[in-house]
Amino acid sequence: MRKFLSNKINLAIAYKLLNDLLFIALIFFFAAIIADGLIPGIISSHISFTRVILFVSLDLLFIYFLAGQAGISLKKSPINKKISAPTLFLLVLLIFNSLFKLNNIALNLFVTLLIGLSGYFIYKIILEES
Amino acid sequence: MFFDLTKEVKLNNKNYAAYKRLQIALYLFAILLGAYFAYLILFPAAYFTFSFPNPNSLQNTIIDPRLEDGGPVERGEISQTLFFDTALVGNYSKAKIRLHLNKKSDPLMLGKISLKKSYQAFFYPAGGNLDFAETNFQALKINGDYYLLKDNKLARFVSEKAYLTRYSADQATEKGTEILRDYELSDEIIGFADGTLISYGISVYIVSEGKILPVNNVVTFSAMGYDWNDVVPASGDEISLYEKDKLFTLSSPHPAGTILKTQREGKYYLLKDGKKYELSPGNADQNLLGKSPILVSKKSLDLSKGCELKKEALSFRTYSCEISLEDYKDLLGKDYEFKLTANSNIKTDNLDVIFEKTISSDNLKSAAKDIISKIRGNYAEIPVQ
After folding, report:
1. Do residues B269 and B259 touch, judged by C-beta distance below 8 A?
2. Nearest-CA neighbor of B219 among B195, B259, B249?
3. What pLDDT score does B382 carry?
4. I need a surface site. Which of A67, A102, B261, B351 has the fewest CB within 10 A?
5. For range B17-30, the mean pLDDT
6. Three-class SS of residue B258?
7. Is B125 in contact with B337 (CB distance < 8 Å)?
């Protein structure tokens, strides 16, 4: 293990692979959330979402750790508008879908809007503070 | 072939080639894992279990393990025969039965499992003759309300709807209100006939023996063979006549008052006191025969396939066997009744039944249908206000 950690090439390869793993896990996570939103229980009856979140968190932790060990600088990348727009749209759809059982489209849209606005302002506050 | 998510981390050609190989392996592994997950979703298995040391555990999903005389199994001790049921929706290809014996149990010399499929209630023992020839009553219609005149007392029906679940409209004799002075009014208010489906708000209930059983969900309702057209909307007054009984789930047997009808032969059975009474036009109240019955297959009583329990490899006390369910596919019902016959006294710890689907185009089609019906179930009523 020590030998592995002392070899920067190994660390760089592991770092790259963990990023790929994160990408796969996130794709699975989003696909699972959409599927479970459409048919509640279709995924969560087989695998708990907590486990997926824990797996993604662990992966992130390892990436952070390996980046430090391998001397890779993690630069803050600007927000990718090509990805963020569809992601936001998907989030709105998921919220709308989760409120579908309200049996009232107007109320559903209103609550979705409120959640969206609250999310936006919380995001702004966090950004301003950071 | 594959993209690089971390272009900022530079590697020399040799190491980059090694990374690419590992990356391909990782993505291939992810695809295989995804395919396995899809298999689990499209061809799901259904697990049922019963722990004999903990017979009251909520984890127990096998229904009512019982001895031949109907008595409970004490401490897992089985002498000769054990009956147990499972209830599930959907078509499965095979059932695997696993029996885990207690450390102190004698080994199982010869154990056989046989299987029948229908509704639990259809396997009830046959009752004798029911006397429907009750003639000492008269149905009356007084000022728009329905009454039953019996033993010189008048009992009022809670509503016309309730009356019509028991008698036909032409059975009631129209009388004037003066008859109310001639007879004593009974405290009893007559409700719906046993076995009637009533709805109140978004809930559906089954009337049985003066109580109502709330149906837990639409899957149970359909799987039990009920028809939405038979549901009678009830008013607050009508529903208040009844005490709510325990939830009617997929594992529940049909309640007393339910009429079963064999699909091909057209034989009717009435469920009462844990027995099924055969009804024929000669001995049955015609109103009972006019009810919407639960369809069953007569063949369910005769078709019984089995397997012999064998000790599992690498196990000291676990015995298992498999039964193909292909022959049961056309039989109506959602309950599988198992019969375990052992030629020695054994003591069991656990009993498991696993229903599996094999990979086939039929099962794939049925899985797709199931997914579509679940989506429809979620979004069928588009809420517009």
Report:
1. yes
2. B249
3. 45
4. A102
5. 94
6. coil
7. no
Query: Hey, what are B13's tokens?
Result: 């050609």
Residue ranges in B256-356 assigned as alpha helix (H)? 286-289
* Neighbouring C-alpha atoms within 13 Å toward the C-beta of B383: 14
List, in sequence order, every beta strand (DSSP E) within B130-267.
Answer: 137-142, 145-150, 153-157, 173-175, 184-190, 197-200, 203-208, 211-214, 231-233, 243-244, 259-262
Cβ–Cβ under 8 Å, residues B85 and B339: no
Contact A13 B22 (CB under 8 A): yes
B384: distance to nearest CA of chain A, Å?
A: 6
- Each of the 130 residues of chain A gets a pLDDT tens digit; together they read 677 677 888 899 999 999 999 999 999 999 999 999 888 888 988 889 999 999 999 999 999 999 888 888 777 777 778 888 888 888 888 888 888 877 788 998 999 999 999 988 998 888 776 5
**Residue of chain A minimizing CA distance to B373:** A39
List, as one string, the DSSP characters of B6-60.
-TTS---HHHHHHHHHHHHHHHHHHHHHHHHHHHHHHS--EEEEEESSSTT-TT-
* Tokens 């309730």 found at: B162
ipTM: 0.83
B378 contacts in A (CB within 8 Å)? 38-40, 100
- B341: β partners: B81, B112
pLDDT band at B366 (very low <50, low <70, confident <90, very high): confident
* Distance from chain centroid for Cα B226: 11
pTM over 0.90: no
Q: How far apart, in whole angstroms, are the C-alpha atoms of residue A105 and residue A99?
A: 9
User: In chain B, what residues touch A28 (CB-CB under 8 Å)?
Assistant: 30, 34
Show the CA angle centred on residue A86, arms to residues A82 and A90, nearest 5°.
160
Q: Which of B360, B340, B363 is nearest to B352 (CA)?
A: B340
Mutate to test the interface with B, among A16, A60, A74, A94 (most CBs of B within 10 A): A16
List helix spans (H) across B233-360: 236-239, 286-289
- Which residues does chain B have within 8 Å of residue A13's beta carbon, measured at their own beta carbons? 11, 15, 18-19, 22
